[in-house]
Amino acid sequence: MARFGTGRWVDGKELKRLLVLMLPLYIGNIMQLGMGVTDTIAAGRAGANELAAVGLGTSLVIPVMVGFGTILSIATPMLSRLRGAGCAGKAGAVLNNTKALAALLLPVEWLILGVGSFLFAVVTEDAAIARTAQLYTWFMMAGIPANLLFRVAQSHFEGFGQTRPGMFFSMAGVVVNIPLNLLFVFGSCGFPRLGGAGCGLASAIIIWMMALGMCAMLLTIPSYRRTTQQWLALRLPDRKQLGTIFRLGFPLGLSALCEMSFFSVVTFIIAPLGKLAVAAQQVSINVSGMIFMLPLSFGVAASAVDSIGNKLFMVCNCVTMGVYTGGAAII
């Protein structure tokens, strides 16, 4: 057994458990990245203008969505600690306050994306690209409530050591994204041709499907039904616990926002160079994302394993930023 200073570092049994948790997370994250890949392929087939617009739109939407969603993911280690202490009955209260925090974050996230959508006309001189990117952002804003709900439900599962549901719904999202892109991007089956903006509408629909599916799954599992009913109930939040969740989750959300914004900033910088440069940047993001997801998944899995999570989560955050930066430099 290895040691870290005077405390325990890792033992084989815990490491094996961590890897079992991490693999579904990694596959799920890759599947979520796969939605972006299918969007890139569909928008690319529609034309360079459409792909460039999707690139600008995702550069604003994805970092904000991930950042705000990560704030809520702090519920995962909180639930894991309760479960380890034999206090799983208190999980419903934690999730209910996490839901309340999501409701408070929703208008802030909408405001950021709404204001940000008007900046596309500033970074690019092509009015058509700016307009399509703005429509993409507005469509994605419709999926923001579902994304926050999904993150709360996902934290429920992961806090109880089950990472497979997130993987399942992410895989389903990729499969459904393909026909929806055909419907909205190219205007099949009587739907209007929306071009790159159609990718945003398709993604918003899928996010709602994933969120509602996750909640329905929780309600059908007898062992989770009571906890699920508690966090879905309408009740006043506990201000103290609400503040604790935000205080612990905000640094994680800010860190995720900075990590995901690395390429986004580059996209806005190169936007004046033209649509081909932005389109190429959109493709490179998908490549680097494959590298980014491995250490990220490892870090999230570590947060669900209480005995080693604190140290490994800190290390994995550092590794994630280092690998992501290295991948960006290579590309």
Description of the molecule:
There is one protein chain. By secondary structure, this protein is mainly α. The protein is 83% helix and 2% strand. It starts with a strand and ends with a helix.
Query: How many individual helices?
Result: 13
Coarse structural class: mainly alpha
Number of strands: 2
Helix content percent band? over 70%
Please state how the strands of the largest beta sheet are arranged side by side: 1-2
Compute the separation of the termini in Å: 38 Å
Strand content: under 5%
Give a summary of the structure in a few sentences.
With 331 residues, the protein is an all-alpha fold. 83% of the residues lie in helices and 2% in strands.
List its traits.
two-stranded antiparallel sheet; mainly alpha; 83% helix
Describe how the helices and strands are arranged.
Blueprint: E1 2-4, E2 7-10, H1 12-46, H2 48-72, H3 75-84, H4 91-116, H5 120-123, H6 127-141, H7 144-159, H8 164-185, H9 197-220, H10 222-232, H11 239-270, H12 275-303, H13 306-330
Antiparallel strand pairs: 1-2
